[in-house]
Amino acid sequence: MVARNYQNSYERSLNEPDGFWLDAADKISWSTPPRLALDASRAPLYGWFPDGAMNTSYNALDRHVAAGRGGQDALIYDSAMLGTQQRFSYAELTALVARFAGVLRSHGVGKGDRVVIYMPMIPEAAIAMLATARLGAVHSVVFGGFAPKELAARIRDAAPAAVVTASGGIEPSRRIEYLPAVAEALALAGTPETPVLVKAREGFAAQAADHAGWLDWETEMAAATPAAPVDVQATDPLYILYTSGTTGAPKGVVRDNGGYAVALNWTMDNIYDIGPGDVMWTASDVGWVVGHSYIVYGPLLAGATTVLYEGKPVGTPDAGAFWRVIRDHRVNVLFTAPTALRAIRKADPEAALLQDYDTSSLRTLFAAGERLDTDTFHWASRILGVPVVDHWWQTETGWAICANPRGLDQLPIKAGSPSVPMPGYRLSVVDGMGGDVDAGTEGNIVLGLPLPPGTLTTLWGNDERYVSSYLAAFDGYYATGDSGYRDEDGYLFVMGRTDDIINVAGHRLSTGAMEQVLGQHPAVAECAVIGLADPLKGQRPSGYVVLKSGVDVTGEDLGRELIAMVRRDIGAVADFKHVTVVEALPKTRSGKILRKTMRQIADGDEYVVPSTIEDAGVIDQLIGVLRPAAGE
Ligand code: COA
Ligand code: AMP
Question: Could you tell me if residue 197 is inside a domain?
Answer without folding.
Answer: yes
